[in-house]
Write a structure and sequence with these properties.
The protein has 220 residues and is of the alpha/beta class. The protein has a single domain, classed as NAD(P)-binding Rossmann-like Domain (Rossmann fold, 3-Layer(aba) Sandwich). The protein has a six-stranded parallel sheet, sandwiched between helices. Strand 5, helix 5 and strand 6 form a beta-alpha-beta unit. Helix 3 packs parallel to helix 4. One of its GO terms (molecular function) is oxidoreductase activity. This is NAD(P)-binding protein.
Length: 220
């Protein structure tokens, strides 16, 4: 009966993950803490209302220390003597570099991407570690992306998401540092690449790019 906290659950992958978790038997997943900035969206609230005994919303802005610390305390109050088994760091941003060129990437986009995607993930993980230490599974899942791959960088060079790509590459290293630091305590830290949400701007961009490329090939 795992207890799981998921950040970034307002929409997209985070929301879908909560949906799929509560579809599992209670014997597998007993409680899901859905973390999101501010109040829950209508879609998340509908899910909470449907599974009121298994889904609890907790406000958490990953770029704010006080907010994350309060979220951890709220989750702890619900768990009582139990620990948290799994933390899923899903919250993140992928800002668009409208110029497309690395040299003209606005500094604020890069800074903001690191604040949310790297520092924010560290902030949440650090705050929830005491709860995870009391859990049985001690699993932390960080949301990565193939766009963070240095080997595949040229494959995705057309995507104007340099700030996102760079921050997610840094996330991979942070995940490894956490894994090494807590291996002797039975922790598992993993980075996964779940693909692109159908609601994301990047998915629309990539789809149009593929269509354009294939049309050009057909015309030639």
């Amino acid at each position: 009966m795992a207890t799981i906290a998921v950040s970034g659950t307002s929409r997209g992958i985070g929301l879908e993950l909560v949906k799929q978790l509560v579809d599992l038997p209670h014997a597998q997943v007993s409680k899901v803490f859905a973390l999101s900035r501010g109040k829950p969206t209508d879609a998340l609230q509908a899910l909470i209302d449907k599974h009121i005994d298994r889904v609890t919303h907790t406000s958490a802005a990953v770029d704010d220390d006080a907010s994350v610390q309060q979220a951890a305390k709220t989750v702890e109050s619900h768990l009582g003597d139990r620990g948290l088994d799994i933390l899923v760091n899903n919250a993140g941003i992928a800002p668009w570099n409208t110029s497309g060129k690395m040299g003209t990437l606005p500094v604020e986009l890069l800074t903001r991407s690191f604040e949310v995607n790297v520092v924010g993930t560290h902030r949440v993980t650090s705050a929830f570690l005491p709860l995870l230490e009391k859990g049985k599974m001690k699993l932390v899942v960080n949301m990565g992306t193939t766009l963070a791959s240095i080997t595949w960088a040229e494959r995705y060079a057309f995507a104007p998401t340099q700030a996102y790509n760079i921050s997610k590459t840094a996330l991979n290293m942070m995940n490894k540092q956490y894994a090494m630091s807590y291996a002797d305590q039975g922790f598992t830290f993993v980075c996964v690449s779940p693909g692109i949400s159908s609601q994301s701007q990047l998915r629309s961009f990539l789809t149009s790019q593929v269509i354009t490329d294939r049309t050009a090939v057909a015309q030639n």
